[in-house]
From TrEMBL, chain A:
InterPro entries per UniProt: G-protein_beta_1-5 (IPR016346), WD40/YVTN_repeat-like_dom_sf (IPR015943), WD40_G-protein_beta-like (IPR001632), WD40_PAC1 (IPR020472), WD40_repeat_CS (IPR019775), WD40_repeat_dom_sf (IPR036322), WD40_rpt (IPR001680)
WD repeat ranges, renumbered to this chain: 55-96, 141-181, 182-223, 224-265, 310-342
Name of the molecule in the record: Guanine nucleotide-binding protein G(I)/G(S)/G(T) subunit beta-3
Keyword set, alphabetical order: Coiled coil, Repeat, Transducer, WD repeat
Record-stated family: Belongs to the WD repeat G protein beta family.
SMART domains (alphabetical): WD40
Coiled-coil ranges from the UniProt annotation: 1-28
Keyword 4Fe-4S carried by entry: no
One Pfam short name: WD40_Gbeta
TrEMBL record, chain B:
Record text on subunit structure and interactions: G proteins are composed of 3 units; alpha, beta and gamma.
Function: Guanine nucleotide-binding proteins (G proteins) are involved as a modulator or transducer in various transmembrane signaling systems. The beta and gamma chains are required for the GTPase activity, for replacement of GDP by GTP, and for G protein-effector interaction.
Keywords: Cell membrane, Lipoprotein, Membrane, Transducer
InterPro entries: G-protein_gamma (IPR001770), G-protein_gamma-like_dom (IPR015898), GGL_sf (IPR036284)
Domain G protein gamma, first and last residues per copy: 5-74
Membrane-related topology note: Lipid-anchor
UniProt similarity note: Belongs to the G protein gamma family.
Record-given protein name: Guanine nucleotide-binding protein subunit gamma
Subcellular location: Cell membrane
Upper classification of the organism: Eukaryota, Metazoa, Chordata, Craniata, Vertebrata
PROSITE patterns reported in the protein's UniProt record: G_PROTEIN_GAMMA (PS50058)
Organism listed in the record: Ilyodon furcidens
Length: 342, 79
């Protein structure tokens, strides 16, 4: 017993020492913040986007949405037990996928648009072929021991999942087996995002940390701290050299990968609601963050200022997404509606 | 490859995992934040003119606009 305690104390001491060294190394290169560097950049003024469409169709809370790479189709998931594939130009529903389990938390569109995937409290990531005459279950990826919080296709043959069991997994869709398991978080993984070059991905978790992973090696390369509560949303900055996170601590943060630290904090004293989701505009200038206060607030990523708000939902904004062509932003809510703005 | 169940990890396993991870991360070469922020700023400024959500879009070019009342009843025809 005493020996075990001594061992733990030694390990803790080693951890503390290493963390202090890392903090010192970060401080040594910290010669400016983003807002200071952006001092000479002209402010944006008020960003006023208009509501273009309200998509009605789900009968319960919407938990997730994902754009197709064609920037026209979009898939949404609701705890009414359905996935709906929409044509956002016409507002028409193209496909309805009935789910075995209504407790869905995540949905993804494959880059080919042939497949969609979803999962939630069933701990399973189910992949559907939506090009068949009627949606057909292609695979049930069943190995996580916790809820499925997020999933993203790399292609029609590989998908990444994040889970409440604290791991992320890369799956081979041809065999249905795990290719790689990414273990390092000590809290539920809530969100993941692929790097633009697809060699890395980032995960945000309930341990309030964001981690950068080498997809093929399976190793955690960098860890970003600073949030004081669960990280619910995470995204790469379009250049691939920075990441943006959103948390239950009511703030968003931008971390730069090469200086290995936080460069901006997006907080507002009047915002006391947790961040549920986020998406960036194509240039990276705007951050659209969905909050528990029923709004999606718009941030100037360079100046760290709130520059607008998308108001109209009657309940929490649970998901946000900007399509690949950057032409608009979609918000999904517990009020069962999806809204398109630009 | 089995999924590692974090519930099975002892406190010592978790501490060892953390130490090993920190030993990896300590080796990272870090760039000056001024250089990084400058690059981010340049990336944005290079793309901001084409950023629809910043610059706006004309009614005719807007793919999400509601179809005009002239063809309102026949919206599906155009869809």
């Amino acid at each position: 017993m005493a020996a075990e305690k001594a061992e733990m104390d030694a390990l803790k001491k080693e951890c503390d020492g290493l963390r202090a060294q890392i903090e010192a190394a970060r401080k040594a290169v910290n010669d400016t913040t983003m807002t200071a560097a952006a001092n000479g950049v002209a402010p944006l003024g008020r960003v006023q986007l208009k509501l273009r469409k309200s998509l009605k169709g789900h009968l319960a809370k919407i938990y997730a949405m994902h754009w197709s790479e064609d920037s026209r189709q979009m898939v949404s998931a609701s705890q009414d037990g359905k996935l709906l594939v929409w044509d956002t130009f016409t507002g028409n529903k193209l496909v309805a996928v009935p789910l075995k389990s209504a407790w869905v938390m995540s949905v993804a569109f494959a880059p080919s648009a042939n497949l969609v995937a979803s999962g939630g409290l069933d701990n399973i990531c189910t992949v559907y072929n939506i090009k068949a005459a009627s949606p057909k279950t292609l695979r049930e990826l069943d190995a996580h021991t916790g809820y499925l919080s997020c999933c993203r296709f790399l292609s029609d043959s590989e998908i990444l999942t994040a889970s409440g069991d604290t791991t992320c997994v890369l799956w081979d869709l041809e065999t249905g087996k795990q290719k790689m398991v990414y273990t390092n978080h000590i809290g539920d993984c809530m969100s993941l995002a692929l790097s633009p070059d697809m060699n890395m991905f980032i995960s945000g978790a309930c341990d309030s940390l964001a981690k950068l992973w080498d997809l093929r090696e399976g190793t955690c390369k960098q860890t970003f701290s600073g949030h004081t509560s669960d990280i619910n949303a995470i995204s790469f900055f379009p250049s691939g050299n920075a990441i943006v996170t959103g948390s239950d601590d009511c703030s968003c943060k931008m971390y730069d990968l090469r200086s290995d630290q936080e460069v901006t904090d997006y907080t507002d004293a009047t915002l006391n609601a947790g961040v549920t989701s986020l998406a960036l505009s194509n240039s990276g200038r705007l951050i659209f963050a969905g909050y528990d206060d029923f709004n999606c607030h718009i941030w100037d990523s360079l100046k760290g200022e709130k520059v607008g708000v998308l108001s109209g939902h009657d309940n929490r904004v649970s998901c946000t997404g900007v399509p690949a062509d950057g032409m608009g932003v979609c918000t999904g809510s517990w009020d069962s509606f999806l809204k398109l703005w630009n | 490859m089995p999924v590692i169940n974090v519930d099975d990890l002892t406190d010592k396993d978790k501490a060892v995992m953390e130490v090993n991870q920190l030993k990896i991360e300590i080796k990272l070469e870090r760039w000056l934040t001024s250089k990084c922020c400058e690059e981010i700023k340049e990336y944005i400024q290079a793309g901001v003119e084409e950023d629809t959500l910043v610059k706006g879009i004309s009614e005719e070019k807007n793919p999400f606009k509601e179809k005009g009342t002239l063809c309102g009843a026949r919206g599906a025809f155009w869809g």
